Fold each of these.
Amino acid sequence: MPLPLPARPADLPPLLRAEGLGVRYGGRTVLDGVGLTVRPGEIVTLIGPNGAGKSTLVKALLGLVPLSAGRIERRPDLRVGYMPQRLAVDPTLPLTVRRFLTLWGKATEAELRAALAEVGAAHVLGSAVQSLSGGELQRVLLARALLRKPDLLVLDEPVQAVDVHGQAALFELIDTIRRRHGCGVLLVSHDLHLVMARTDTVICLNRHVCCQGKPEEVGRHPDYVALFGRHAEALALYHHSHDHAHADDGCVVPVGQEHTPHDHHHHGHDHGGHQHAHGPGGHDHAHGPGGR
Amino acid sequence: MPMARGVTTMPTARGAAEMDEFLVRALVGGIGLALLAGPLGCVVVWRRMAYFGDTLAHSALLGVALGFLLGIGLNIGVVAVCAGIAVLLTFLQEQRKLASDTLLGIVSHSTLSLGLVALALMESLRVDILAYLFGDILAVTPADLAWIWGGGVIVLAGLALVWRRLLAMTVDEDLARVEGVPVRWIRLSFMLLIAATIALAMKIVGILLVTSLLVVPAATARRFAPNPEVMAALAAGFGAMAVLLGLGLSLQADLPTGPAIVLSAAGMFALSHLVPLRRTA
């Protein structure tokens, strides 16, 4: 069973709050008037089409991209664990996972093993980083973020290059981690279906914030539907039958109790939230396309 | 100063064989440079900066001209110009107006040409340009040795100082920045280290062949290295072997020394692929 949430996120002071963010690249406006808040224990998901500025927003929040407008407040001493979209390590660099995890920052061997075990990747400790599958690499990146004992986890497209089973298991893992560590999570996804059941707040982005709220609200929002078309309708239908499961406290309902047969959807997506509880790592087949 | 030589012949070791101390100095200087170039070259390879290094090296001739012109010494002139070009390149790359390799192609060849033109215009000066382009290891003076070993120790110490941060940002620059690595400063420091290495290497293998001493031993070391530090040490070792072998070949077969060293390094790279091994990392 998932652990209970440490506290209702809404009662806690925010880890990160951004207001009126604007980013411009070479005269082109990439982000305009974006605001967002992440609280401890809360999962906030950024969705939007390609080119919507999701990664740019994440980088702006992390201070990697200069702002043209707006401001960002971080809780003092905020520790951020960041998981980049991909990792392109040159094949000429001899780098084991063990070394990768200790490149910068300190960690004992026991801490390394614990972090890898937590993400279900204990077996890759001595492997070359370049030899990992897509799913294994994402888990190792997650372990590195966890080793920093973060208050806030920032995950940019964490399930890219991971097959469908792996995606579900990874989202489950992220959910478990935020419950166990009580950290806030800001994650980027191109697909709301995948993150539906494990997200507290969805922010639909297309250079500006189109709409935001609980996943089921966003799924029905006209702007979201306009942006995502048919998929969005399927999602709204899908979520209609689930509203009751979220109504009581607004928190994510434990996976096991949420299970409902869902063969009434015909849009060909796999629903991340409805895979039955594989243990972390139990179903990560090592045939992702990431083995560079 | 380079020995008086015709510009049409390149230096070989046989002509200097009777002068033992020339050979000893050549060997000591060459090996010192190889020990320096190995670890630095590994980072160049990991960060895919071979063409960048080449561009800096080409600009070194401009530094030679400047050194003569201002009377500040060639080494200082070369370091100053290479460092200036490195900063300029970083700035231009951040503008993202041109693809990186196009930019390097422009800067590389225009600085080399500018250097050649500047040296040609300095009529009072008779310079053996070939010695700068391809090196003149047999003309290494005790002062050169002091530069190579003294400067080499400083450059290696600098590299050791930024090593972990450099590795972290080589793996992923954004991740390194989020984790508190001052990426811009580390990148700049590394460029200055390369600039200094080029100045020190110019005498040994020459401007046109400097990059090979950085890249080839590192590439050879890759197959045998379980971690970055071992790779750096192996690259230093392979580089030193290439210097030894190249000098020997130059002596035996009357080959131009700089090219003989580079060919030895390349030969070792090719041969290394015949060694069977079980790859660990």
Note: Residues 120 and 281 of chain A are 4 Å apart (CA to CA).
Amino acid sequence: MSVTRLIARDELRLMVRNRVAVIAFALLVLLTLVAVLSSWSHQRGNAELRARHQHEAEHAFDAQPDRHPHRVVHYGHFIFRPLGPLAAFDPGVDAFTGSSMFLEGHRQNTANFGDVRQSSLLVRFGQLTPAFVLQVVAPLLLIFLGYGALARETERGTIRMLMLQGATRGQVVRGKLMALGAVALLTGLPAMIGFVALAGQPGALALPMATIAIGYAAYLALWVVLIVLVSAAVRRSRDALLALVALWTVAVVLLPRVAPDVASAAVPLQNRLQTDVAIARDLRTMGDSHNPDDPHFAAFKRSVLDRYGVTRVEDLPVNYKGLLGLEGERLTTTLFDRYATASYDAQRRQNALVEGIGLLSPTIALRSLSMAAAGTDFAGHRRFLEQAEAYRYALVQRLNRMQAEDVSYADDTAVDAGADRRKRVSATAWQQMPDFIYTAPSGATLAAGAAPGLAIVIGWLALAAVLLALATRRLGARR
Amino acid sequence: MSHDISNAPNAIHIQDLTLSYDEHRVLDGLTLHVPAGSITALLGGNGAGKSTTLSTLLGFVRAQSGTVLVAGIDPGVAPDAARRRIAYLPENVALYEHLTAIENADYLLALSGDRKDRGVITDALAAAGLQERAWDQRLGGFSKGMRQKVAIAVALLREVPVLLLDEPTSGLDPRATADFNALVRAVRDRGTAVLMVTHDLLSAADVADRIGFLEGGRIVEEVAASGTERFDVRALHARFAVASKRLAA
């Protein structure tokens, strides 16, 4: 057996003979198991609930009776964002942003402008997920098991005893790395088995799964190297423990907590009330499609009459009220899109700032990586919102066109006893409306989103390895 | 009984060694040769340079000038290679408390590539004076003397050309000291060069073939046993006192 393996084996023997270490490790495995099961149960329940509600919403939409198309515009439609398989491992911002939307004409009833979106990268201590266990708890266990790896040997003088037997500094450090690495592997293994079990469902994409696995492996390897580095750099075990707990507190707890607050302060985001007031103000200046005397719509009316070569809307071959609906929706959607884009941009800058702070905290970087690869980050939520808005706009405009083409202007403006029946469109029209189908991103897209976080974690790992190589040179040195 | 070392090669070769920490000169032209199959005791007061001499031989510190060779290897250039040729018994024995006496010996011997069977290890522990009931006990409850016996057993089991001893009898009672000296002589007789750093003139006189008196970082007096006669402790003490006064003057 090589010297490195002998040293690693002895370090593991010490851990096994330390009952506290064994109990702590058993507790972590138990915690991981609970996290996997609760995540699996939660995700499955959520997916079923959303699928059932989606089905019911589609059924309710299709079951509408013969009615005027504009009533259908206001009747609206509920859609739900289906969860990807990896969301069970890391639900990301899903709990904060919600995943259901009510689609209707003239409005974007979404969380687009909501306060909760500012929390897109907040630490989620309330949720027990495999990702949380690996990000937060596993490093702490590694610290408690490994802080004395070299400091204890230095403190007790056994480091020289090792070297006097011919073990080189490099062999000693590699032995300690191997032992703690084995513990990290065992620590991460239950979560990774859970990850494969949770994520290995139909539709799971190999590339993001591999990215997550590599990211978490690099993160745990980073902690192993950091622990051995600190243990090599100090002369007393107690100092190593204090330094490592402080490092964990700052990198895992403090910075991920502070970063979103810094981002919110640096890039303020309007709350819902402010946004609603601003939109209402802009709508007043823009005009009202329901008000035929509005200057904008008066000009629109003239252009329509000119295009068709008639002088009265009654002489148009199409229902002018339908055309008004089309134009009104186009205008309001342009306005809503402008606000949505501004909001997205602010959130993008907030997230960029948080990811910048991730240079100081590998935990933030890993969290970004994990959510991006799982498709549960802000970009994933935005993807859903944009697809939902595109569907809403197409649906409303289709109904407006239906009003323009299938309901005559005369009937639409008639008030006689039978007019209401003549304005109606057959119920089969609603059944022919396409359902909302969320197009999930490709594996390459998800992996590309996770790449910056992965680069930061690997960069940290490389830096820590270089520092450890430098610290190794001074190991056991004494006057 | 005296031991003939006149034709033996030097396993430890120190020539004109100079070493300073900051402004303080610790070794000042130290010259010392320890032939294979001999025991040299190095005596001296605190700060005389005894421990620094051992640290230099072990490659933990590097001299500013002079030559150091351990079994032909410069520990300043190749410390790991030099250490593989040295068995070292420190004054304050550092062993693993989570391991038993046998496990400690097995682990350290395995690291040095000199792995032995359990029977060989227990023989060495017995020879070092450790009681049988302690062999399979973890070192957490061991006294200093018991730990030292484990370390002695490990040092004796290392089949290397050089044995360095740092105050080896400081934790031992007179009976154990006599037993230990017998062990050291047995190691010498198999061809090992032994360098013993000690305050204990009586023990040095009992076991050493040659005694050097270290003061101010160099050997100021060196005495070898001759023929069948051992050292006269009273005469040794007087010679060292004179040498010390001469140096001070």
Note: The interface with chain B takes residues 1, 3, 6-7, 10, 13-14, 17-18, 156-158, 160-168, 476-479 of chain A (CB under 8 Å).
